[in-house]
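Kindly inspect this one:
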Amino acid sequence: MSDTTSLPPWMFNLDGTFLGFVEADPIKVKTICLEVDGEVLAIKLRKEVRALLRSRLQPGDYLRCIGRSELDGDIIKLKAYQVFTLLPPLPKTCTLPSPVTPSTQQSATQPARTLKIRMCRKSGCQKRGGKQLAEALGQALRDRNLHTQVEIQYTGCQKHCSEAPTFTVDPGHHRYSRVQPSRLPAILDRHFTPTKPNSR
């Protein structure tokens, strides 16, 4: 979440992951769902930015929303006047362990995998390219020497079948939709740093 100490109490400046629109009809979208520090917030969009954003935003995009809050009874309503797309911050736990040297190899244990890419393994996603994406992802991790640090975790339905194939990068819960294998290098480079080039 952004620092809001310099803002008036009725203003907000929030960074988070775009989860989707509240409204089902794409022509009538007014409100986005933004995940900020594990909490999902509904933020209404100013009329001037709605048309532009509904055609550009994809679930998993990292956004900064600046706007005004108001109290309606016991409910705080948020309305964004400006929305910017940002690169997501790298996870704090993304520092990869130092390479094992011959002197420490005997006592070293396999590093714990805290970095995960969660992929749906249900038949709907598999039919929409999920199987090929999983194979390409495994190869891309091996090419970057990340296959021992980043775990591909297969899950049940993630409730985004119409946007398949999808996957989520943790920590941070960054979701990517309709992923083509050609996008994998850029996504991996955004979240993970290779330990060294693979010499294959």
Q: What stands out?
A: The radius of gyration is 20 Å. The chain is about 20% helix and 35% strand. The helical segments are 47-56, 123-143, 184-191.
